[in-house]
Amino acid sequence: MNYETQVETLQTMFRLREVDRDQESVKRPVEVPVRVYTDPDVLKRELATAFRDYPLVVGVAAQVREPGSYLLSVWNKIPFVVVRDKEGTLRAFLNVCRHRGARLVSGKEKELKTFACPFHGWVYGLDGALKGVTKPYNFPDMDCAAYNLQALPVAEHLGLIWIHPTPGASMDPPAYLGAQMSSEIEHFKLDGLVLHRRSESTLNANWKLLLKTYLERYHVPVLHKNTIGPVFEKGVIAHFEYGPHIRIAAARTQLMDALKVDPASWRILDYASVFYTLFPNTFLINHANIVSLNSFYPEAPDRTIWTHDMLYRAADYAGEEGQAALAQRFANIDAVFRHEDFGIVEGVQAGLRSGANEYHTLGLEEGLLAIFQENIDRVLG
User: What DSSP string runs through 142-170?
Assistant: First the structure.
């Protein structure tokens, strides 16, 4: 986010703070049918469109910087593996042997030198080419090139790792994000960050319900009153949309302190947190000295795999004391997500079975949830 956009966004939030209102996203309350969180057919259509026709953010550059380093899917519906080969080229494949379909990479490997099938011993290079077949006389006249691994489009953009889940599809992350959003995220220099750790959990709730908790501040003073609520006291939200993506600037308690200093020194992360919904299933959170990348992978209408990657700038957490503080920071943030945001949402999901509500009614401060849902509905047709 360049200086001019930071100033414009801060000035918008100053005006919003004066009236204690978020930037307008909808003009009236919106009703969302709860079947979008429970209907297996809705999920089937989401998987066939939103999760097949669009690029997905699957991790960060810090996970695959070195030759042989790899990033493994947590989701059986798209069992990918991304690897950096010995020439430094980033590659992605379906993690499936072309013989009889065994998984090639388990996740226990420290690094990859080849892909070796644990079932019958077929070996592939990191370029996906089939290099060796056990007892090749079993396969006379075999064209090895016809059995190369199934490649997926992959790209590194803005410090994020993108794949397209459909083999042979075209993918252009800069065009997908648009010039302004790409420029904004580039400003945060994610490619220079260090990965602290990834957590992975299976949650008993619909993937959209989970992601939507990030899209409004209406719940913050109540649900988070003893944790992050005071950090965002009187917080207001300004937002920007490009296509199906949404940027949110969430004012912190000290927002108005910016008016006491020279505007030339303004840095938005000193006064707000900046979030990006990267369609369809990723939420990127920029705080002053850490970044959280959250992705949601639907297993069933009421079950979702959630991954949380936290990154940091090495200089901000140097030495044993710094690393201890970082570990505590991760634990605190992860606990807020897991036990407060997602804990309440798991209860919401369970309550859907009661039939008490045919619709969820979204107020004006929850308008971005409606916009996100409209983006999903649009791709479903």
Answer: --GGGGS--B--EEEETTEEEE-SSTT--
Go through the domains of the chain in sequence order and give each one's CATH number: 3-55+178-380 (3.90.380.10), 56-170 (2.102.10.10)
Q: Helix, strand, or coil here: 316?
A: helix
Give counts: helices (H), strands (E), the chain. Answer: 9, 18
For residues 73 and 78, give the distance between their C-alpha atoms in angstroms, rounded to a whole number: 7
Cis peptide bond N-terminal to 280, omega within 30: yes
Which residues touch 355 (CB under 8 Å, ≥6 apart)? none
> What was the pLDDT predicted at 345?
98
CB 169 within 8 A of CB 55: no
Per-residue pLDDT, averaged over 359-365, amounts to 97
Cα separation, 378 vs 199, whole angstroms:
31
Q: What value, to the nearest 5°, has the Cα angle with vertex 338 and ends 247 and 228? A: 60
Confidence of residue 234 (pLDDT cuts 50, 70, 90): confident
